[in-house]
């Protein structure tokens, strides 16, 4: 039995009863969101409304952006990196080792040269290593994936430092393209006062975010926004649609924009700010409870992803829907994850550990290499 989904970044705190009747319609957003096609059952006006909402959030004028509602977060990365490749056909893709697997999938699909950059123990891109690798390929333009929250550790790459590193390495703005993968934290960061800003006022090319994560859409979807000046390099007119094709997929889920528009307008910027602050507060609470119980745990400053030692019981992992990698697991604290739920989780984990490690020969793993020695509570570091 699944008790709760706490290891994956899904906000299950939603109620779309008011939109229930929409399932009777086949809503398909073909072609360009800004150009009406021949197919009449669409939700383009809601799609454009959602895009305008995010354009304001990421500070780009209506006349300067182009975007669409994707079918998932991966499609946003595929599109952002494709735009970068079309702008710089001979460019090299740089991505930290802790980038989402879709980034490396994009490199394979587009047959791009791809350089993996080392990470700090936090999971953030190591700009010293980035600089070394940039200088080794100075003759080719750079296409960079910047993580606004890595998949496993929730680390936020320092966008300003990435731009500074590019400039120090001799890359002027006409020789690099930055795609920001903001799958989860792309929507959260604007509401954290001390967080570095993700904005098109900086020299970035595109930003993508998932709609089924923090927003809480019941179907996978995402938002992808890029600069209008870039989109013309990969768009073409399609007579069959009576529209322009600049997306990855042909058909797009026409229900998703309505669900997104409904939630964005119901909660508003203030509603999301409140939820972000609650998630960060609850994440600190979880990290402190784990550490107080003698369990290795780490939480990045701008994150709601708590990393800790991997439970050795797979039934426990499945019961709580934990995401694991090597010796670590994580909980992503979302608006639907309450203090009570976190207490239940920690209490059960502490109880289970007392049986897993009752034999002195079996000890909790050392995860200092993953989360830093200061966060590790193994026999060596406690």
Automatic annotation (TrEMBL):
Heme as UniProt keyword: no
Cofactor (UniProt): pyridoxal 5'-phosphate
Enzymatic reactions: L-serine + H(+) = ethanolamine + CO2
Coiled-coil zones: none
Protein's GO biological process: carboxylic acid metabolic process
Entry GO MF terms: carboxy-lyase activity; pyridoxal phosphate binding
Domain of life: Eukaryota
Keyword field contains Repressor: no
Modified-residue entries (N6-(pyridoxal phosphate)lysine), positions: 213
One Pfam family here: Pyridoxal_deC
Keywords: Decarboxylase, Lyase, Pyridoxal phosphate
Similarity remark: Belongs to the group II decarboxylase family.
NCBIfam families in UniProt: PRK02769.1
Protein name: Serine decarboxylase
Species this chain originates from: Populus deltoides (Eastern poplar)
């Amino acid at each position: 039995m699944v008790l709760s989904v706490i290891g994956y970044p899904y906000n299950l705190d939603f109620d779309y009863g008011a939109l229930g009747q929409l399932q009777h319609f086949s809503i398909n957003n073909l072609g360009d969101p800004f150009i009406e096609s021949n197919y009449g059952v669409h939700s383009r006006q809601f799609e454009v409304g959602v895009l305008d909402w995010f354009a304001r959030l990421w500070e780009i004028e209506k006349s300067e952006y182009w975007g669409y509602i994707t079918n998932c977060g991966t499609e946003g990365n595929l599109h952002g990196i494709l735009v970068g490749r079309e702008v710089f056909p001979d460019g090299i893709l740089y991505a930290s080792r802790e980038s989402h697997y879709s980034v490396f999938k994009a490199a394979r699909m587009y047959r791009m040269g791809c350089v993996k950059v080392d990470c700090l123990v936090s999971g953030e891109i190591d700009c010293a290593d980035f600089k070394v690798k940039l200088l080794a390929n100075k003759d080719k333009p750079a296409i960079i994936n910047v993580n606004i929250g890595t998949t496993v550790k929730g680390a936020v790459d320092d966008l300003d430092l990435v731009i500074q590193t590019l400039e120090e390495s001799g890359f002027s703005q006409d020789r690099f393209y930055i795609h920001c993968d903001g799958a989860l934290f792309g929507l959260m960061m604007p509401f954290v006062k001390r967080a570095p800003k993700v904005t098109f006022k900086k020299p970035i090319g595109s930003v993508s975010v998932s709609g089924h994560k923090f927003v809480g859409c019941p179907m996978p979807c995402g938002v992808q926004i890029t600069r209008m000046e870039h989109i013309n390099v990969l768009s073409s007119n399609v007579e069959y649609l009576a529209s322009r094709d600049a997306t990855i997929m042909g058909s797009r889920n026409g229900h998703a924009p309505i669900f997104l528009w409904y939630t964005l307008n119901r909660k508003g910027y203030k509603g999301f700010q409140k939820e972000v602050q609650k998630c960060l507060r609850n994440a600190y609470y979880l990290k402190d409870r784990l550490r107080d119980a003698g369990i290795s745990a780490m939480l990045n400053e701008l994150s709601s992803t708590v990393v800790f030692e991997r439970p050795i019981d797979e039934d426990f992992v499945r019961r709580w829907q934990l995401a694991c990698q090597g010796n670590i697991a994580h909980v992503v604290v979302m608006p639907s994850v309450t203090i009570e739920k976190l207490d239940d989780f920690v209490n059960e984990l502490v109880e289970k550990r007392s049986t897993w490690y009752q034999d002195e020969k079996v000890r909790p793993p050392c995860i200092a290499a993953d989360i830093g020695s200061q966060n590790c509570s193994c026999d060596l570091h406690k």
